Amino acid sequence: xxxxxxxxxxxxxxxxxxxxxxxxxxxxxxxxxxxxxxxxxxxxxxxxxxxxxxxxxxxxxxxxxxxxxxxxxxxxxxxxxxxxxxxxxxxxxxxxxxxxxxxxxxxxxxxxxxxxxxxxxxxxxxxxxxxxxxxxxxxxxxxxxxxxxxxxxxxxxxxxxxxxxxxxxxxxxxxxxxxxxxxxxxxxxxxxxxxxxxxxxxxxxxxxxxxxxxxxxxxxxxxxxxxxxxxxxxxxxxxxxxxxxxxxxxxxxxxxxxxxxxxxxxxxxxxxxxxxxxxxxxxxxxxxxxxxxxxxxxxxxxxxxxxxxxxxxxxxxxxxxxxxxxxxxxxxxxxxxxxxxxxxxxxxxxxxxxxxxxxxxxxxxxxxxxxxxxxxxxxxxxxxxxxxxxxxxxxxxxxxxxxxxxxxxxxxxxxxxxxxxxxxxxxxxxxxxxxxxxxxxxxxxxxxxxxxxxxxxxxxxxxxxxxxxxxxxxxxxxxxxxxxxxxxxxxxxxxxxxxxxxxxxxxxxxxxxxxxxxxxxxxxxxxxxxxxxxxxxxxxxxxxxxxxxxxxxxxx
Length: 556
Fold this sequence. Notes:
Elements: E1 19-25, H1 37-49, E2 57-64, E3 67-73, E4 81-90, E5 101-109, E6 112-120, H2 128-141, E7 157-163, H3 172-180, H4 184-189, H5 192-198, E8 207-208, E9 238-244, E10 250-257, E11 269-277, E12 306-313, H6 324-327, E13 333-344, E14 359-365, E15 373-374, E16 385-386, E17 393-397, H7 400-404, E18 407-415, E19 421-430, E20 440-448, E21 451-464, H8 465-470, H9 472-477, E22 499-500, H10 503-521, E23 540-543, E24 548-549
Parallel strand pairs: 1-12, 6-7
Antiparallel strand pairs: 1-3, 1-23, 2-3, 4-5, 5-6, 7-9, 8-9, 10-11, 11-12, 12-24, 13-16, 13-17, 13-21, 14-15, 14-18, 18-19, 20-21, 20-22
């Protein structure tokens, strides 16, 4: 904001965590007449940590106008950080001005990868579609890690924090009365972001903790009394969202706002997490590896699970993957069999004047990102199916425990009218669900720039290479499938977690998908140009992240 907070202790702890990520928007205050405001913000944060018994190491600072992020890690972890990368994307006027947009940082600690994005999206209650468009522009424009993949589909842990600017769709007077009555549940029901996520319009596959605190905007500076300027409804503008890859496990412990910092018309927010650390390839599986993520049974990580605490507060290197040379001499080898692949109601791209698509699938294994495996394309088909003979065979050299920690990145591409390829949607399939005597049905949602664009179905089976070569695998594939499989309930149709399923569940999901496609067709999602706004400056802290290894005896 336009004034420096006197104390950050209520917002940013100085101990107890391993990674801290602080993101701010409209942070323009400066002691030298707005000269180098980022330097002031970063120096204040570093000064705050200088009082700690163990001072963390700053590994990244990134700035886009008044959107800023600083990342610090515990000093013992700093030597283990690799693949550090930073990027920014403008979404302001003409997609050039940086008053709206995002900055991002990605890195790995050993084999566990992280990506953090802090953004400032379009303001005003009526600009829901423009905010959704901002998110798509950010994901489309930011290229981190493996440049062939969207950043939402490659990092073990991805966090999106900032002033997302989604509003509450009720009158100001009603909202204030509900807040006074402590009836926050009704406010959440009118929250634009949750509605858009439920419809699959934006942030498909992301989760958010429960909103149990008061709206974070708009307050009078110097107090926490709601402002009546422009008659704006108090809203949850400031958020922390997250998503994980299938083999990762994340637990959220807290999600709250900080009312003691009053220099802005926003209240800063914070969230704390524990993240499962994916240990070096080759470690034995522990009993904890049978745990699922968000109630599902996704891939289990390799190695003894070490608990990591992550603390968030809102306010060109290559992505690491195991190299084939590292496991090429390890036996036994496995074949990954994909069958009965099908996409339901893929959304065509706007530039296809025929309203159709020529889709095909590209599979990029996490263990060899330099190789791709593809199906043939289906001409002018929005509900394509591929036979077993059209599905690629993918081989893996390594142990079964190593394989359980891997996944397939799936890209659905459109072979354009002139032979070019365009992305239709993407998802990730954990290989652990295919470790079975029989082919295992799976389901997941396809997304493009966080928007739901279709549903992907199929079967997967991981078999030993020797059985596949001898032909015995085909006998296994014809056995009756077990009817004892229990499918956990889906949290929300907007989340694209992979899970096992059966024929009855597939039928229900297809009907749900068709119904939601019809509902999506009723709402326009036009991209608007944004007018430059005359808003007062404010410091809005969005998130600080830390990761702590609770097992201090573990060697890295």
